[in-house]
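Anyone up for a design puzzle?
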């Protein structure tokens, strides 16, 4: 028998399992098949146990296995930049279309600059974006800015946020922010973000913000 190539990752384990099945089918005596089957099962269990979780998923996924949310970009778009990624609206008025051309109908229109949006796909000079409400559509690239902004708890209502002078839950209160308020990001450490709101700077818990990924650090 030839030695089977033991490759880490889901595809490698599947390929190895198929190789074992082929070898087993060549054994003519039943007792040999039984012993070979036991040995193959033990080898597969050892591979699964020894292979790190991130390698089992072939290193292509950075999803948080606990929350199921994407923590970091995982692909590259036509622009050469990573996908997905957060940007903000540069234009005060921006049409979002159902397809990546000016001939496609307008799905809706943004009437406020500075809002964060997530780019999830690219087609030449067009970007497919998602807003904080989960709505998706295509927008021309020049209407977007690389400046990072966030919205405070856009899913809540009538629950203001608290900006603190230090990244501490007991820190001095610097200001309050309304839901869906657009805040300019100064930096984030994965737990707290330092933001600016109408000239006032302060720290706010990152988990309450839409426009940054869980655990993302911004300098």
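Challenge accepted. My sequence:
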């Amino acid at each position: 028998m030839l030695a089977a190539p033991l490759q880490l990752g889901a595809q490698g384990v599947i390929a190895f399992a198929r190789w074992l099945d082929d070898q087993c089918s060549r054994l003519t005596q039943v007792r040999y098949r039984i012993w070979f089957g036991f040995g193959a099962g033990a080898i597969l269990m050892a591979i699964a146990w020894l292979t790190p979780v991130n390698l089992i998923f072939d290193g292509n996924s950075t999803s948080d296995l606990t929350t199921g949310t994407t923590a970091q970009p995982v692909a590259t778009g036509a622009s050469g930049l990573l996908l997905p990624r957060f940007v903000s609206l540069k234009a005060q008025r921006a049409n979002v279309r159902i397809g990546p051309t000016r001939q496609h109908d307008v799905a809706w229109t943004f009437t406020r600059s500075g809002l964060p949006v997530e780019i999830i796909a690219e087609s030449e000079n067009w970007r497919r974006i998602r807003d904080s409400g989960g709505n998706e559509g295509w927008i021309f690239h020049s209407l977007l800015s690389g400046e990072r902004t966030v919205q405070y708890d856009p899913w809540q209502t009538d629950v203001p946020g608290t900006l603190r002078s230090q990244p501490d839950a007991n820190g001095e209160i610097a200001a309050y922010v309304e839901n869906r308020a657009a805040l300019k990001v100064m930096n984030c450490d994965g737990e707290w973000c330092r933001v600016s709101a109408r000239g006032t700077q302060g720290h706010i818990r990152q988990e309450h913000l839409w426009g940054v990924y869980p655990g993302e650090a911004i300098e």
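A detail worth pointing out: The radius of gyration is 25 Å.
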